[in-house]
Structures are given as structure tokens and as C-alpha cells.
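Quick one, probably user error.
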């Protein structure tokens, strides 16, 4: 899966005062490989500042064609994005922007 450089888009936290101390949006252009039936593919994003315990919200700017998408911090400065196919056939997604928001709860201090 080719991925472009990850770009920080926006940082803020006023909308989540009292809950999250760190809220940052990132984006990257991703061209997922075809995902076979009942399997998954993943992409690793290098995101400076990602820590275990961060919440990850992820979206894809194209029709997921019944795939599901999720993200989690898999290591310091590393986020995995998973494309899961639970259908009966392979699905090939187009190249599109991935948007990722990392949210760090106030009680987590890396």
C-alpha cells in the first residue's frame, strides 16, 4: 500500500476541554492494495507524538465498498490502519485521503 507523507492538519482541544489534553488531525494519501475475501490489509503511518492509550478516529475519502476501517496506536509514533473485508469477494479501493484524529485522555502522560 503506497502512502504519501503524513501531514499534520490541525491541532486543538477546546472542544474537548476536561477530557482530552491532545487533539491533532493528520492526513495522508493512501492507495490500498486489493483486499481479499475474509481478510485484511493494513498500512503503517509514522505519526510523531502517537502514544499507547491515544484514541484514533479514522475516515477514508472514498466509498469503502463494505470494507471496514479502523486504526490503533501500535507503537511509539506508529499508527496502524486496517481495511477489513468480510464479504465474499475481493475489493480494490481507489487511492484516497485518509484522515486520522489522535485524542489523548488527560490522565495519560507519555
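Nope, works fine. Designed sequence:
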Amino acid at each position: 500500500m503506497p502512502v504519501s507523507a503524513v501531514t499534520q492538519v490541525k491541532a486543538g482541544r477546546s472542544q474537548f476541554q476536561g477530557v482530552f489534553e491532545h487533539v491533532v488531525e493528520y492526513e495522508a494519501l493512501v492507495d490500498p492494495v486489493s483486499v481479499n475475501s475474509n481478510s485484511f490489509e493494513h498500512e503503517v503511518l509514522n505519526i510523531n507524538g502517537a502514544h499507547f492509550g491515544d484514541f484514533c478516529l479514522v475516515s477514508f475519502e472514498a466509498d469503502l465498498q463494505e470494507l471496514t476501517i479502523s486504526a490503533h496506536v501500535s507503537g511509539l509514533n506508529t499508527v496502524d490502519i486496517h481495511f477489513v473485508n468480510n464479504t465474499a469477494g475481493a475489493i480494490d479501493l481507489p487511492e484516497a485521503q485518509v484522515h486520522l484524529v489522535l485524542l489523548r485522555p488527560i490522565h495519560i502522560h507519555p
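The two ends are 30 Å apart (CA to CA).
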